[in-house]
Amino acid sequence: MVRGFLTDLHDLIYDKMKNHNKKESILFSPSTLGKDLNHCTIEEILPHLLVCSSMATIESKEKVWVATSMLVRFLATHTNNLVVMENDTPVGMVGSREVLQGLYSNPNHAFFSEQAVNNIMNRDLEMVSAKMRVYDLLKRMNDIRRDFALVQTTDGEFSTISARRLLEVGILCDTRIKVADIPSKKVVTFQKEDSIGFLIGEMLRNNTDVVILEKTPLFVTPQMIFEKISELNYLEDVDDFLDSKASILNLKNGRIISDNITVPEMCKIMLGMKNAFVMTQNNVLTPWDVITTLA
Questions:
Q1: Domains (range + CATH), the chain
Q2: Which of 61, 242, 244, 255 is the most exposed place for a label (fewest CB within 10 A)?
Q3: For 145-184, how does the pLDDT look when each residue is reduced to its tens digit (9 = 90+)?
């Protein structure tokens, strides 16, 4: 019987409930025929990534406005980062964090229209082997605080592995662990009168892509900020964008779920959402929480 995939959390909860020392087998289904997830490899749980290249790319000399425009489209899909290419070779990545950091320091049109992607990209691109154990991959992602890696395909190309992709793994597992069993974390919030600069600062300081309007289910993500920047022609003739009120953004309602559902059920809900996060009465959960719990 498949007993679940949240290894550390599973041990903690059941040790307390049953007071036993025997470690439960953590199994993955169906492709590995019940193999312990700790020993499964990337190619065993995500084989489709090795057959056909799947990644969003941008040339290193492109301007930041191009990357921002692409992120508006891709942040709601399988990846939250663009792979930066030079001579058909991956040399870095750029995601919402890099754009927000640059915007926070240079909130002007020149940042988008004159700066090249290679000036803001993260050069620490994580390249992993298809033979790498899933547990090691998740631990590595947790250590570097980045839910992104590249794995080489059978034809020498690359595919991206992100927290959103790993939701597919969660769906295929069977566990009694419920959403309520995931430890609560600080919910990053803002007030109506707060500025966009405050929102960006909170996102960067707390390493989060979701900030909740206090005492409501309304939320803001980097994608919403980038959409507004695009509407403003990438801040052309705009000198005070960071001072603008958060109310100018198109806030959206979050999905509230019961904390009594299982983690695989939560993963299934997230995978079908444009903005992959859910809310309970006391917590905000994103695909990143799947990684931190697994690792």
A1: 50-126+145-159 (3.10.580.10), 179-294 (3.10.580.10)
A2: 61
A3: 888 899 988 888 888 898 888 888 888 876 778 899 888 8
